[in-house]
Specification:
By secondary structure, the protein is an alpha/beta fold. It is globular, with a radius of gyration of 22 Å. The termini are far apart.
Length: 359
């Protein structure tokens, strides 16, 4: 079998955009590689696999993060050294998985990646021999990837100075442990966003043509679906600021039904605090875009800056009202100024059925 294209995805949202890319682009025989993890086991992807024909589907299990083993009885210093050894051994195994995969695939025409902020996806792009690299949308991370590529020149390994032993150790580390995150020469964004690209990159517009063919306009919920985001868990803002924003949103929708749809990465304590506010909480296994296509839409879809808002604007058009609630930048932790740009991007599409409301 001659493999022309390889897709690597790790979340249902990436999978959704991979399906759209497969139907929209002429990529020939396509192999899908699913990166499985505790938050996203294989059964999460099964309903989406039926939406496209793949030449082959492979699964790779990755355990993200590292939980140190309690070895205090050995002493603080030795315990730390052993845990560092275990952590690096785990990274070595992941490194070998992707190096072996790139060697096995050899030369391919197209590599399609789910999130180019992930170190292992950047690493794989530098290892496999692909004529063209496509990047899928994974929420607003697309905007961050594009901003990074516009601001950075093509990468080369940093020069490491020091003793011969140190230089050898660092060379071995780069070869076998660290992800190769040098910027690749060129990428093509397959995206629903309007991007101001680096001169070396290209863009193919994702209009969700395949999904729009499946559009059903039936109403599934007489009220508002509010899409939760793991902003506390991901270090965007404090829990009290997140809950304060939700309090304002509940007041805004006074007299209407609100169903808060949790994100998989939201902590149980945060979800429980939302329940204690008297908000009805639920969750769908499928990406909200597919859920609404299959089962119908609410009266309104809202969130903070979830990419599903812009996706729904493109897919459903005037069939649904979409609202983004803008949290003031002062409530976010420092260093997250790109969020203002994200909200400005959404505001540029404001109209009768797509709004950005400041809290």
């Amino acid at each position: 079998m001659v493999i022309r294209s390889v897709f690597i995805v790790e979340t249902p949202l990436q999978m959704l955009n991979a399906i759209e890319a497969k139907h929209s682009l002429d990529l020939g025989e396509c192999v899908l590689i699913l990166i499985l993890s505790d938050p996203f086991p294989e059964q999460v992807f099964r309903p989406l696999l039926a939406l496209a024909d793949w030449e082959n589907v492979e699964c790779i299990w990755l355990s993200h993060g590292f939980r140190p083993i309690d070895l205090r009885w050995l002493g603080k210093s030795l315990s730390h050294q052993l845990n560092e050894y275990l952590k690096e051994s785990k990274q070595l195994i992941k490194h070998l998985k992707f190096d072996k995969l790139s060697t096995r695939l050899g030369s391919i025409d197209n590599l399609v990646l789910g999130n180019f902020l992930q170190g292992y996806m950047q690493h794989f792009a530098n290892r496999v021999n692909a004529k063209q690299i496509y990047l899928l949308d994974d929420g607003t991370d697309t905007l961050r990837v594009n901003a990074r590529r516009r601001s950075q020149e093509l990468g080369s390994a940093a020069v490491v100075r020091g003793s011969l032993l140190r230089r050898v150790k660092n060379r071995l580390r780069r070869a076998h442990l660290d992800w190769d995150v040098r910027e690749v020469n060129s990428v093509t964004f397959f995206t629903s966003y309007d991007l101001d690209l680096s001169p070396r990159d290209n863009c193919v517009r994702n209009s969700y043509a395949f999904l729009r063919q499946r559009l059903k306009t039936k109403r599934a919920y007489d009220g508002v679906y509010f899409l939760g985001q793991p902003l506390v868990e991901d270090g965007y803002l404090a829990q009290e600021n997140y809950l304060a924003a939700l309090t304002k949103i509940v007041k805004y929708y006074a007299g209407q039904n609100i169903l808060y749809l949790t994100h998989r990465r939201e902590a149980k304590a945060n979800v429980e605090a939302i329940r204690e506010m008297g908000i009805c909480v639920g969750r769908f296994d499928l990406p909200i875009e597919v859920q609404m296509l299959n089962e119908g839409m609410p009266s309104e879809l809202s969130s903070f800056f979830s990419s599903a808002l812009d996706n729904s604007r493109v897919i459903f058009g005037r069939n649904i009202k979409v609202t983004a609630f803008r949290i003031d930048q002062s409530h976010f932790y420092p260093g997250l100024e790109f969020l203002d740009e994200t909200y400005d991007y959404l505001h540029a599409y404001s109209g009768p059925d797509f709004r950005v409301i400041s809290l």
